Structures are given as structure tokens and as C-alpha cells.
């Protein structure tokens, strides 16, 4: 009997050792320190330097003219340059790309708009010279992922505001560095998450803010996009690069490396770091089948170390007891899907694969729309007439302002133009931006936190608090607006400036053609 007790005690000790990992501080391959606390992985949170303070609600003096330098003119950058030629009160000062020809090619957009030529920078460090200019207010970054961070840091160090394409930071170290630099320089560091400006997302956000769905308790988002037509178009660094930067990144890194399209819109609907915060995640992925095969086909050799699974799923629980599910898949054949789904205590919204809202008759009536059918319930989506009436009633003010022109200018159906226009609007009117550096950090950190989870048997991982305790200071996500008279005055100045700039540009291009 005694020996049996000893065996049982030994087994219990062994079991406890397996289920309660040591609390010794560990360091992953990206340099992040972490440890176990009550079965959860907790990462190190650096303290804010004593001479700095939060940039929540940061507003800078009004800019009559927003002078812009663009860095990264491959796949997304040229479209951004073209869109800015349609925004009054902006001046495209400089164009930069690793390859000079791609920067020079964007002059055509300025010529088409009768705007003066921009200065051109190129080469591996061309962006450094651009950032040193004293006539740039905003550096717009659309490079490959690995260059988002160094360009943004250089720009802020040189006193520039930055807007960074997604994902804006690739790991926790970069997230914290951007937060610290924005707080140090008091400059805007905005994530260019265009999906926050799509029509369904904006109207649904307005509905959620007006209580149409009751309390939103669960949300879904995703980036499911088969990239098979695009893999060969991603920039390659010389003849020895067989993969291109994006496939190479997925081969070397695990986790949801492109989370923000799905996460950004639902984070706004859930008031993340404006009354709630993401607290814990658990992530898991499938094995790599398609990704591995892509590498083998391009390198003609076996690939035994493709890190990222073909499909990644991340579950997040917030401090207020909400749940977010985010998915990522750029490998397998299936229809494009960002999911975007809100589950509320009184209603439901869904974008993919079918756009619709589910409300019963009482809730629809309480939301200001009288049902035209009998026995309306939430077991199915609203009929077309009721849905159109609901959307018309809750059309977002930003869509009312920019929607029609956005459809003409384009950029992912117009949402890119709305995003850029709102960025310029806030700078011209001295308002806080729609998305700040804390949004950037929280939406981008899923990649490394998910990797930590999956590399440790899909264990729960605690989110660091990038606001350092201030996530509950602002109550509810809101877009900032200027008073109507101030907005009108700013736009009048913007249009007057652009008219003069176009006169100057037309003369310069005419003279150049004569030569």
C-alpha cells in the first residue's frame, strides 16, 4: 500500500509539472521575453519613460496644406499617389522607391492632375534623405512589410507624422518602439487600415454605436484571400530571390501575419482601448500544404520548414467579456472573405458571404424603421426593403461626405480614398486621427502573440497593454469632426491652394514639353 501511495504521489507531481510550466523568464526568437503565470503566457511590458505621456486623443495644430512624401511605390503606393491628387489642400512633395524607375513613373499622376513634379529618391536608404526634408508634414509608407518599421521610425525621428500600410509592425518589439517614438515626438503614427472605411463596416459601426444591435458581445473578422494570382508580382530582391518578399515572410514566420483587415473594423465596434481592451488570445493553425508546395515549385527543392499554416484561427477575449474570432488564409482556393460579423444582444450583422442584418420587429421599430412585413423575426436576414431603410437611416456621416467621390476616384471600391480623405481632413482641422499608434500596435501584435500561443501547444497568451493603463480613459470609439464653419473655412483654403498649385504645375509641365 505504501509503495502504491508513493507511485500515485510521483504521478501527481509529474502531472503537475506538465500542466504548470515553470515561471522562468524565456526569450523567443524575436527577442521577446515571456513567462508562465497561472497557465497563461505573459509577455514583458516596458514601462513608459518618465518624460513622456500618452498620445490618446493627440491633436496637432491645423495644417492649411498637408505636404506629403510617399515611400514605397510598387503595388499599393502608386494608387495612393493618384488618390492624393484628388484631395484639396495637399502637395505631393517627394516620391521614393528602392527602384528609381518606379518612383519616376508616379510623376505621370502629377502631370495628369496639372500638379508640379515631385522630388525623386531611390536606393536602399533613399527614404532617409526624404525624411530629412523640412517641407514634408506626412510620410506615407507603402513599402514591403519589412521596411514599414524603419521608414516610420526615421520619419518620426525627423519630426514627420507617419501613415503606414498594413501590417504596420511585424512584432512586439516594433509595436513598442512605434508607441514610444510617437509618444516621444508627439507625432501621429496611423495605421492605414482601409477596411475600416468600407460601406458596410461604416454603416454597421454607426448602427452599433446607436444601439441597434443592443450590446455587441461577439465579433468575427478575417482575411481570406487566395493569393495565387499575385505571388509572382511581389517584389524580389535580385535574381537570387525566388520567392518574393511576401511568400518568404510566410515561410519564415508563424501566426496571423495580416490580421488588421479583419480585426480593425470589429475593434472599433467593440471600443477597443476606448473602454475595453483585448486581454487574452488562443491561436491555432493547420499544417502548411499549399505554402510548402509554393516554395518547392519555385526553388525546385524540398521545403521542410514552412512556418505558417495555410489557415490560422485566433480567439480573443476582452476585459469586458466579449469574444473576437479572427482568421487568416491566403493559400487555399476559396472566395474572398473578411467575415465581418457582429453578434449583439438585440441584433446581428453579417457581411460575408451574404450582407444582411437580423432584427425582430420590435427592435427594428425601436431603431426607427417600421417593418413592412408581418411577423418579422431575427431567424433570418431583413427583407430587402427593411434593410435598405435601415441602411439609409444609419448611413455614416463620413460616407455622406466622401462616398460619391470615392466611387469615382476608386481604390478598393473607394474605401482607400475615404481613408486618405479622412486623414487629410483631421490634419487640416487639427483633430485626432481615426486610428492611432495604440490601434496600430494592438491590431498588429496578433502575429507574434499567436506564434507564442501555437509554439506552446496553443496556450493562452495575455495581451500587453500598449496604452499602459489608459485603455479606459476614453469612453466609446468616435470619429472627430470640426465645427461646420471651421470645416468650411479649412476646405476653402485647401481649394484655393490647390487651384494655385495647379496653375503652377500646368506652366511647369508646358515648359518641360517645349524643351
UniProtKB/TrEMBL annotation:
UniProt-listed Enzyme Commission number(s): 3.2.1.-
InterPro entries (UniProt xref): Gfo/Idh/MocA-like_OxRdtase_N, Gfo/Idh/MocA_oxidrdct_glycsds, Glyco_hydro_109_C, NAD(P)-bd_dom_sf
Keywords from the named record: Glycosidase, Hydrolase, NAD, Signal
Xref: SUPFAM superfamilies: Glyceraldehyde-3-phosphate dehydrogenase-like, C-terminal domain, NAD(P)-binding Rossmann-fold domains
Signal peptide: 1-25
Enzyme class, spelled out: hydrolase
Required cofactor names: NAD(+)
Protein origin, superkingdom: Bacteria
Residue span, Gfo/Idh/MocA-like oxidoreductase N-terminal domain: 66-190
GO terms assigned for molecular function: hydrolase activity, acting on glycosyl bonds; nucleotide binding
Start and end residues of each Glycosyl hydrolase 109 C-terminal domain: 202-353
Family: Belongs to the Gfo/Idh/MocA family. Glycosyl hydrolase 109 subfamily.
Name under which the protein is recorded: Gfo/Idh/MocA family oxidoreductase
Organism of derivation: Bacteroides stercoris
Amino acid at each position: 500500500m505504501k509503495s502504491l501511495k508513493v507511485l500515485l504521489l510521483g504521478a501527481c507531481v509529474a502531472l503537475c509539472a506538465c500542466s504548470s510550466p515553470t515561471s522562468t523568464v524565456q526569450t523567443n526568437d524575436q527577442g521577446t521575453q515571456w513567462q508562465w503565470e497561472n497557465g497563461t503566457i505573459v509577455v514583458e511590458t516596458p514601462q513608459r519613460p518618465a518624460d513622456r505621456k500618452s498620445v490618446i486623443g493627440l491633436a496637432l495644430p491645423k495644417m492649411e496644406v498637408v505636404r506629403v512624401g510617399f515611400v514605397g511605390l510598387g503595388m499599393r503606393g502608386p494608387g495612393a499617389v493618384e488618390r492624393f491628387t484628388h484631395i484639396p489642400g495637399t502637395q505631393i512633395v517627394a516620391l521614393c522607391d528602392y527602384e528609381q524607375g518606379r518612383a519616376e513613373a508616379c510623376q505621370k499622376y502629377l502631370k495628369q492632375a496639372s500638379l508640379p513634379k515631385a522630388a525623386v529618391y531611390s536606393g536602399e536608404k533613399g527614404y532617409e534623405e526624404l525624411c530629412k526634408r523640412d517641407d514634408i508634414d506626412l510620410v506615407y509608407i507603402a513599402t514591403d512589410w519589412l521596411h514599414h518599421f524603419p521608414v516610420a521610425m526615421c520619419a518620426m525621428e525627423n519630426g514627420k507624422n507617419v501613415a503606414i500600410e498594413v501590417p504596420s509592425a511585424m512584432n512586439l518589439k516594433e509595436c513598442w518602439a512605434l508607441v514610444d517614438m510617437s509618444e516621444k515626438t508627439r507625432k501621429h503614427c496611423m495605421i492605414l487600415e482601409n477596411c475600416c472605411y468600407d460601406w458596410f463596416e461604416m454603416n454597421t459601426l454607426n448602427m452599433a454605436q446607436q444601439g441597434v444591435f443592443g450590446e455587441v458581445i461577439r465579433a468575427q473578422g478575417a482575411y481570406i484571400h487566395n493569393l495565387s494570382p499575385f505571388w509572382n508580382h511581389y517584389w524580389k530582391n535580385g535574381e537570387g530571390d525566388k520567392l518574393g518578399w511576401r511568400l518568404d515572410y510566410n515561410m519564415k514566420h508563424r501566426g496571423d501575419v495580416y490580421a488588421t483587415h479583419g480585426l480593425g473594423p470589429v475593434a472599433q465596434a467593440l471600443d477597443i482601448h476606448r473602454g475595453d481592451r483585448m486581454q487574452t488570445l488562443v491561436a491555432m493553425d493547420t499544417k502548411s500544404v499549399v505554402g510548402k508546395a509554393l516554395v518547392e515549385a519555385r526553388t525546385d527543392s524540398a521545403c521542410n520548414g514552412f512556418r505558417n499554416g495555410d489557415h490560422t484561427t485566433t480567439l480573443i477575449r476582452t476585459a469586458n467579456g466579449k469574444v473576437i474570432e479572427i482568421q487568416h488564409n491566403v493559400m487555399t482556393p476559396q472566395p474572398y472573405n473578411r467575415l465581418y460579423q457582429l453578434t449583439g444582444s438585440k441584433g446581428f450583422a453579417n457581411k460575408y458571404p451574404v450582407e444582411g442584418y437580423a432584427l425582430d420587429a420590435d427592435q427594428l421599430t425601436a431603431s426607427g424603421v417600421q417593418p413592412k412585413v408581418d411577423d418579422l423575426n431575427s431567424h433570418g436576414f431583413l427583407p430587402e426593403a427593411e434593410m435598405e431603410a435601415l441602411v439609409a437611416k444609419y448611413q455614416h456621416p463620413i460616407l455622406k461626405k466622401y462616398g460619391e467621390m470615392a466611387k469615382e476616384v476608386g481604390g478598393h471600391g473607394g474605401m482607400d480614398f475615404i481613408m486618405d480623405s479622412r486623414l487629410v481632413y483631421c490634419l487640416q482641422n487639427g483633430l485626432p486621427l481615426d486610428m492611432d499608434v495604440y490601434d496600430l500596435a494592438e491590431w498588429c501584435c496578433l502575429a507574434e502573440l499567436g506564434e507564442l500561443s501555437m509554439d506552446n501547444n496553443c496556450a493562452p497568451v495575455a495581451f500587453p497593454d500598449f496604452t499602459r493603463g489608459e485603455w479606459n480613459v476614453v469612453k466609446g470609439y468616435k470619429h472627430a469632426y470640426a465645427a461646420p464653419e471651421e470645416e468650411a473655412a479649412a476646405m476653402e483654403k485647401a481649394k484655393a491652394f490647390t487651384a494655385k498649385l495647379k496653375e503652377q504645375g500646368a506652366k511647369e509641365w508646358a515648359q518641360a514639353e517645349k524643351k
